[in-house]
Amino acid sequence: MKLSLATRNFLGYAVVLVTFGAVSVFSVAEMHRNQQEVRLVSQGYLHLSQDAAALETLQKNRVRDTARLIEERNADARRALVRLSRLYFPPLMAQRLTQGLQRARELLPLAPASEEGHVRDLVAKMEQLEARYREYESALEAVFAQVERDAPDPSVLQARTQKLTQLEASVDREVRLLEAAVESRIRDQVDVAEERERKSGLLIIALSVLAIAVGLLATAISARTLRPVRRLTEGVMRVSRGDYPAQLGLTGDDEISVLSREFDAMARSLREREAQLREKQEALLRAEQLAAVGRISAQVAHEVRNPLSSIGLNAELLEESIASARFDTPDQAREARDVLQAMSREIDRLTEITEQYLRMARLPSPQLQPEDVNELLDNVLDFSREEMERSGVTLERALDASAPRALLDEGQLRQVFLNLLRNSREAMPEGGQLRVRSRVENGAVEVVFQDTGRGMTPDVKERIFEPFFSTKEGGTGLGLAVSQQIVQAHGGSIRCESAPGQGTTFVVTLPRA
Hints:
Structural class: alpha+beta
Shape: elongated
Number of strands: 7
């Protein structure tokens, strides 16, 4: 898709703004991440490292004091040292273990997703150390129970001392592992922070250079695309003076080129508008002529209808007289009656033609009322069923029961439906199928007449609604013209779809009530 000049300029400067915005957002994000890592190290790992170091110191002191206590020969001194050991070490160790475990758990909300697994591992190590120290305390109490005696059992004391030694080594190992893990995470975090700071600085510099380059490019494109402005101004001035054939002829896909082509199109449209005005003037002249012909036709029809009525009445009287007259031969009587019947048929045909002319010239305004289109169609189809059957035409109904009421004049619309039925029947002289259906389309009610007749050529289809145009022998060419006039007076429309050999479809659209 080609972009206009304004769009390209806007996009260029938007890219610049987005680039600088990306630099700012990236910088803020990196600062936030660095702050989070610093907080994780300063408020978490360092304190946890101090707790691990304190635990290690306490444990070493207690191991040393326990060894001295066991080696003491004086029973009273041993009991005094046991009481001192129970009073001093357990609270300090419990406090350090609880404090270290709490700090390790408090690191979880502070840790990023990449560090969360390591923090959970530290929590697990602290919990394991706490459990190991409880085992150590239990073993130490067993040793204290022997040491407090006046004469400890050497074998029992030795066995308990061996178990205590093993637990001391296990606790010492757990403390060292915890301390090593914390120090390792501190070193890793420092290394990661330094590497990220280096990459962030390089990326910020690259984004800034890119933003400057994009800004310079946008400026260069704007200067290049604004060069044809002078030529455009001169061409517009010529067009404004009425020099319509003058063409700017600017090529390209930017806004100025599009504007120049629009001015060229405007000049062409002005020339075409003049030609259209001439055509409309000619069409208006033809309409005025047609209106004059309609008025003359109405006057002529009115003047002809009265003599036709008299001629028809006299023909009927003459027919009665001939019926009672005597002729030399039966052939003469039959010939006289045939001539009289031919006269009556021609009089009836002329009377119908005059009535059509009068209806076209004096079509009354429709009295619109909310009516059920399906009910009106049922009545019209029932009325025409016998005539259709005699002509070998099969009627098929497909009326939509959900169709809403429409605004219509029942008498006038009945005339339209009867005319369309008659045209469909005459289009199928050897019989066929006529399908009549109603439906709802875009909130309006549509009535469709679809026959299987011989269809129409495109030239004929373009002219079927013209007054006095007819393809039928003896036709007046007023039926469809009057039907269209009636439907348009209802605020609707009528259209035709037809092709040679594929039948004809008339669609009447009426506004819903």
